[in-house]
Design goal:
single chain, alpha/beta, Rossmann fold, seven-stranded mixed beta sheet, 6 helices, 7 strands, about 40% helix, GTPase activity
């Protein structure tokens, strides 16, 4: 399988990042997954993009003075490639499930993607994104419906327009911010446990003296 790769940093500098996270985009064909990534990574929009089999991008963002490297995997939406999805789930820290706000079928399919993701990698941070906000007059999925489903399933959620660059950066920065907080909290917990174990060992040594 071949992948399109876009990298805004040299590989020699990647190891210097404070944080590094893998994000996978899931959803049906033609909902605008590739357009969201192109807008975020390259600030480009193509009216008639080619179907994606698989694409990999990296983008570095600054979150609260921390350098965060996002590894973004854009997946194929066609049904015949669905079998490949589990390959993208490995070591994924976050998933963006995209649907088209003008096509209710893609919203129902997004629910199935979320269920599959939660079954296979339940700890993954998940955001549900309704794209094509520029076609709001033609919407078939109301914002209240999105919010209700997201709240019931503990999901982040947002509506975007890749065409007009509405909320696109916010999607990725929100995820980067959440993941950075989780990683920092986990690191703090690890240090606390290490200090606790060290204190217990010191106490044991003192008792034996």
């Amino acid at each position: 399988m071949t992948y399109r790769v876009a990298d805004n940093r040299t590989y020699s500098s990647i190891s210097e990042n404070n944080h590094r996270f893998k994000i996978v985009l899931l959803g049906e064909s033609e909902v605008g997954k590739s357009s969201l990534v192109d807008r975020f990574v390259k600030n480009q929009f193509h009216e008639f993009p080619q179907n994606t089999i698989g694409a990999y991008f990296t983008k570095t963002v600054l979150i609260n003075d921390l350098t965060v490297q996002l590894e973004i995997w854009d997946t194929a939406g066609q049904e015949r490639y669905h079998v490949l999805a589990p390959m993208y789930y490995r070591r994924t820290q976050a998933a963006i499930i995209v649907y088209d706000i003008t096509d209710h079928v893609t919203f129902e399919k997004a629910k199935k993607w979320i269920k599959e993701l939660q079954n296979q990698v339940p700890s993954t941070l998940t955001m549900l994104v309704g794209n094509k906000l520029d076609l709001n007059i033609c919407r078939s999925v109301e914002f209240d419906e999105l919010q209700k489903f997201a709240d019931e399933n503990n999901l982040l959620f947002m509506e975007t327009s890749a065409k007009h660059s509405v909320n696109v950066t916010d999607v990725f920065k929100t995820i980067a911010r959440k993941l950075s907080k989780i990683e920092t909290a986990n690191a703090d917990d690890g240090r606390s446990q290490h200090l606790l174990v060290g204190s217990e060992n010191d106490d044991k040594r003192n008792c034996c003296m």
